[in-house]
Specification:
The complex is a heterodimer of chains A (250) and B (227). Chain A is built from 8 helices and 7 strands; from the N terminus they run ββαβββββααααααα. With 250 residues, chain A is α+β, with helices and mostly antiparallel strands. Classes of the chains: A alpha+beta (250), B mainly alpha (227).
């Protein structure tokens, strides 16, 4: 199939950036979206032009490195799919595809489709850890965890930190990401010592990174390649309220 | 920074202020609707109800100040959060499509502003009596404290444009509530799927009841059923 791509090109963080149009010819339906871009880049390089910069790593949908806006949706229109797992059979011959970087103040563009998501790293550094226990590893069954809680914590832990939630949110909010980390650690016994300190610190860090608020639109959970539930945000709110009562500092 | 100012600066804290003030406001809106629907019982019922309210100026003003505080808090949090949200995405997308196209969630801000404008108009209309020549709240008639709420409502909708504005505002209020009431429960921490299913339905029902109940009055006056 043949496609027309409108791609955001930006030389560096300071560059104004612009859309450029490329023809992607002889695209096979079994190619992934990134493989299609690889082929387009081969063509650009053969012409001596600068290839389109985009991020990728595992290309099997688990690392969270890839991600861009494809026709106005993060990772494209297919639900529960990362950009690397989006295949060209989802498109038709003659389609025009608009490809843009994730847009948020907290995700500044580095080059073309590559954005700096270290704001996520700083949120994790502020509280996304548990008290480390020294000594030998405890027996696996020494700390009982209820099945229900284990499942909820695991579902939250499947977040790959790709940033699609921020990209899709009308307010560019990072609450699905932050809520997932808070739910993941807050529901497990190992996460209890810092539970309420954690939510206070991570929410403060999230706010200082200039993300917006949650309006419960639910666009993030639909855009999330891992279908992280909106419940993690409600859990974060519950923990945040509880933290206000638990805190002793004035 | 004290914990309270930290709380009020955080996006979640501001959402909690919005949710808590919203809870007060939706409680008022429901009670206000029930009170107003007495117009269908008859002129005497509504006027007696009005006289009961106007005859107790102390509690009336306590309620009014509480509501003004709630509206102030609701607007304050909305403005703070909206400014922050606009700043959170300085460069807009060239192309944007949504997974969820529900109308209610898209109209929270514009609907809120329409309802805000409506409240100002509504207070000038029926509380201050700014727009009507013959408007009279209450008077001492032969030693009896009498109110004219019924007559004011009938006169107030003499201009069909006023009635249409009321109906439009109530539709937006209903949409605002179908999302807002549910969203409020999430913000206040009732995220348990058990409550969530109920909250979604309650929000729908509240939005519908408010829209139908409040629209019924201007519609009935304009259709000539109440006169």
């Amino acid at each position: 199939m043949n496609l027309k791509l409108h791609v955001w090109r930006q030389k560096g963080p300071k560059d104004k950036g612009r859309f450029e149009t490329y023809d992607a010819t002889d695209v096979l339906e079994d190619m992934s979206f990134l493989e299609m871009l690889d082929v387009v880049n081969d063509g650009l390089e053969a012409e001596g032009r600068e290839p389109i910069a985009f991020e990728s790593d595992c290309r099997e949908g688990i690392c969270g490195a890839c991600g861009c806006m494809i026709n106005g949706q993060p990772h494209g229109h297919k639900a529960r799919t990362t950009t690397c797992q989006l295949h060209m059979r989802e498109f038709s011959d003659g389609d025009e595809i608009v490809i843009e970087p994730f847009r948020a103040k907290a995700f500044p563009v580095i080059k073309d489709l590559v954005v700096d998501r270290s704001s996520f790293d700083r949120i994790i550094q502020s509280g996304g850890f548990i008290t480390a226990r020294s000594g030998s590893a405890p027996d696996a069954n020494a700390i009982p965890v209820a099945k229900v809680e284990a499942d909820r914590a695991f579902d939250a832990a499947t977040c790959i930190g790709c940033g699609a939630c921020v990209a899709s949110c009308p307010n560019a909010s990072a609450m699905l990401f932050t809520g997932a980390k808070i739910t993941h650690l807050g529901l497990l016994p190992q996460g209890q010592p810092e539970r309420y300190l954690r939510v206070d610190k991570m929410v403060s860090q999230m706010d200082s990174e200039d993300f917006g608020h949650c309006g419960n639109f639910g666009e993030c959970t639909l855009a999330c390649p891992k279908s992280i539930s909106l419940d993690v945000i409600a859990q974060m709110n519950t923990d945040y309220i509880t933290a206000q009562f638990k805190g002793r500092d004035i | 920074m004290s914990w309270l100012s930290r709380f009020l600066r955080s996006t979640i804290g501001q959402k909690i202020v919005m949710a808590a003030s919203g809870l007060m406001l939706v409680g008022f809106v429901l009670a206000h609707m029930v009170g107003n629907l007495q117009i269908f019982i008859g002129a005497d019922a509504l006027n007696t109800y009005a006289a009961m309210m106007q005859g107790n100026q102390g509690p009336l003003w306590v309620a009014r100040l509480g509501l003004l505080g709630a509206i102030g808090a609701h607007i304050w949090s909305a403005v703070k959060l909206t400014i922050a949200a606009k700043g959170a995405r300085p460069v807009a997308y060239k192309k944007r499509s949504w997974f969820d196209e529900r109308y209610a969630v898209r109209t929270m801000r514009v609907g809120g502003m329409i309802v805000g404008a409506f409240i100002v108009f509504h207070l000038l209309h029926f509380t201050v009596g700014y727009f009507e020549g013959g408007f009279q709240h209450c008077a001492d008639i032969n030693g009896v404290f009498t109110c004219f709420a019924y007559q004011n409502v009938i006169g107030g909708f003499a201009n069909p444009l006023v009635g249409v504005f009321y109906i439009v505002a109530q539709v937006f209020l209903g949409l605002h509530l179908t999302h807002g009431v549910w969203s409020m429960t999430r913000t206040l921490g009732f995220g348990n799927p058990r409550f969530d299913l109920i909250a979604r339905k309650v929000a729908m029902v509240v939005g519908l009841i408010i829209t139908i109940g409040n629209c019924s009055i201007p519609v009935a006056v304009m259709a000539g059923y109440l006169n």
